[in-house]
From TrEMBL, chain A:
<keyword id="KW-0408">Iron</keyword>
<keyword id="KW-0411">Iron-sulfur</keyword>
<dbReference type="GO" id="GO:0051536">
    <property type="term" value="F:iron-sulfur cluster binding"/>
</dbReference>
<feature type="domain" description="F420-non-reducing hydrogenase iron-sulfur subunit D">
    <location>
        <begin position="7"/>
        <end position="131"/>
    </location>
</feature>
<dbReference type="Pfam" id="PF02662">
    <property type="entry name" value="FlpD"/>
</dbReference>
<dbReference type="InterPro" id="IPR003813">
    <property type="entry name" value="MvhD/FlpD"/>
</dbReference>
<dbReference type="GO" id="GO:0046872">
    <property type="term" value="F:metal ion binding"/>
</dbReference>
<keyword id="KW-0479">Metal-binding</keyword>
<dbReference type="GO" id="GO:0016491">
    <property type="term" value="F:oxidoreductase activity"/>
</dbReference>
UniProtKB/TrEMBL annotation, chain B:
<dbReference type="InterPro" id="IPR022026">
    <property type="entry name" value="DUF5981"/>
</dbReference>
<dbReference type="Pfam" id="PF12225">
    <property type="entry name" value="DUF5981"/>
</dbReference>
<protein>
    <submittedName>
        <fullName>Methylenetetrahydrofolate reductase C-terminal domain-containing protein</fullName>
    </submittedName>
</protein>
<feature type="domain" description="Methylene-tetrahydrofolate reductase C-terminal-like">
    <location>
        <begin position="111"/>
        <end position="205"/>
    </location>
</feature>
C-alpha cells in the first residue's frame, strides 16, 4: 500500500530565507520533497518541545528541525538549544516505544544550499521506510 | 528545593490508560524551579499522554491546570474549578502535593507523574545535586556547612572512611568525598582540629526513623 508521508520542518529563518524565494518554486525545482511542510521560525532556539510534540499530535509522520551550524547561530546558542530539545523528544518517543528517528536535527549553512534539499530528501526517505506514524491510529 | 524528575512514560500511561478525562495538574513551587513539574513540563506531559494513548488506540481529553503550590490546603481547594472535567488527576507536584490531594480530595483519584528525588540545588544549568537529607538534627555548624548525612554515601558522622581516595568517594570517582571537603574547608578557617572531635552515636528518630514527622508552632495555629 502506498504511503504519502506528512513531514513537518521547523526551519531557521536565516537558513531557509532563500528557500522561500519565488514562493518556493526554486525549491521544488531542486527536488525538495512535497511531503515536507515548512514552518519558519526566527530562530530554532524558539522551538519548544511542545511545538515538536504538537506536530506529531497534528498528524506528522516525521518532524525535523533545520538550524544554523553549531558555531554559527545568529543568536549564539539557538541551534544548540534546538538540538537538545530534539534530543528530549527522541528520548520521549523511545519511552513511548516509537522510533526516535522520526525526529531529527540538522545544522546547515545559511541560504539555499544543496544540503537543505538533501536533508528534506533524506527525511522523506527515512519516514517512507518507517511507515505511518503509530500516533495516527485514531 | 525539592528536586524531582518525570516518571517513565510507560508507567504514567499505565496509570491513566482507562481514563477518559485527565487533569494534568502542575505545581508552581519547587518542581517548576527544577524543571520537572511546572506549567511547561505539564504541557509536555499532557502532549505525551495524548500521544501515548493515541498509540494504544485510546482517546483522552486532557485539561491542563496549575496551582501556586500543591502543599497547602487553600491552594488544593482551587481544584474545585475543574470539577467534572476529569476522571483522575495526574499531578506533576512532588510527593507532598500528591499526598495533599489524596488527603483533602476524598473523591478524586490522584496519580504521581514524578519521582521525588531529593532536597537539592542547581549545580549548573540543567543539573541538580543533593545537598540536604532533611534529617531533622543539623550538624552543619560542626562540618563547615557541608552535610555528611546527605553527601556522604554512608552518612558517616565521623569521616572520612577508608574508601576516600584523592578526595573522591569509593562509590564513584565522580563523587566528591564530602569528608575530605569538610576537612579542607575547616582547614581553610584554621579549624582542622574540629575533625578530631568524635561525634556521639546519633539518635536517628528525627530523621523519620521514629515515624512521620510533624512541626507544630503553637504561636501560628488558630
Amino acid at each position: 500500500m502506498s504511503f504519502e508521508p506528512k513531514i513537518t520542518l521547523f526551519s531557521c529563518h536565516y537558513t531557509s530565507q532563500q528557500s522561500c524565494a519565488e514562493d518556493g518554486k526554486e525549491l521544488q525545482q531542486l527536488g525538495f520533497p512535497a511531503s515536507v511542510s515548512m514552518i519558519r521560525v526566527p530562530c530554532t532556539g524558539k522551538v519548544q518541545v511542545t511545538s515538536l510534540l504538537k506536530a506529531f499530535e497534528d498528524g506528522a509522520d516525521g518532524v525535523y528541525v533545520v538550524g544554523c551550524p553549531l558555531d554559527g547561530c545568529h543568536n549564539v546558542k539557538g541551534s544548540v538549544r534546538a538540538a537538545r530539545r530534539v534530543g528530549a523528544v527522541q528520548k520521549a518517543l523511545a519511552e513511548l516505544d516509537v522510533e526516535s528517528d522520526r525526529i531529527a536535527m540538522y545544522h546547515l549553512p545559511r541560504g539555499l544550499q544543496p544540503e537543505f534539499v538533501a536533508a528534506g530528501v533524506e527525511m522523506d526517505k527515512k519516514i517512507r521506510d518507517l511507515g505511518p506514524s503509530p500516533f495516527n491510529k485514531i | 528545593m525539592i528536586v524531582a524528575e518525570r516518571k517513565p512514560m510507560a508507567e504514567i500511561i499505565e496509570m491513566v490508560k482507562d481514563c477518559k478525562k485527565v487533569l494534568v495538574l502542575a505545581c508552581r513551587g519547587c518542581v517548576t524551579v527544577c524543571s520537572a513539574g511546572g506549567e511547561r513540563e505539564a504541557a509536555i506531559l499532557a502532549s505525551l499522554v495524548r500521544l501515548g494513548l493515541k498509540k494504544e488506540g485510546r482517546e483522552v481529553e486532557i485539561t491542563e491546570g496549575s496551582l501556586v503550590r500543591q502543599c497547602d490546603k487553600e491552594y488544593i481547594d482551587a481544584i474545585d474549578q475543574w470539577n467534572g472535567q476529569y476522571d483522575a488527576i495526574l499531578s506533576t507536584a512532588c510527593g507532598v502535593g500528591v499526598n495533599f490531594i489524596a488527603n483533602l480530595r476524598k473523591n478524586d483519584m490522584v496519580y504521581p507523574a514524578l519521582n521525588t528525588t531529593f532536597f537539592g540545588g542547581s549545580a549548573e544549568q540543567g543539573v541538580w545535586s543533593e545537598q540536604c537529607a532533611g534529617c531533622g538534627d543539623c550538624v552543619l555548624h560542626l562540618t563547615g556547612g557541608l552535610c555528611p548525612v546527605a553527601r556522604c554515601a554512608k552518612s558517616l558522622m565521623n569521616g572520612p572512611c577508608g574508601g576516600s581516595v584523592d578526595g573522591r568517594c569509593e562509590i564513584s570517582r565522580d563523587v566528591d568525598c564530602i569528608w575530605q571537603s569538610i576537612h579542607d574547608r575547616l582547614g581553610s578557617f584554621g579549624r582542622s582540629a574540629q575533625m578530631e572531635a568524635i561525634a556521639p552515636i546519633r539518635d536517628w528518630s528525627t530523621a523519620g526513623h521514629g515515624g512521620p514527622r510533624k512541626v507544630e508552632r503553637k504561636d501560628l495555629t488558630v
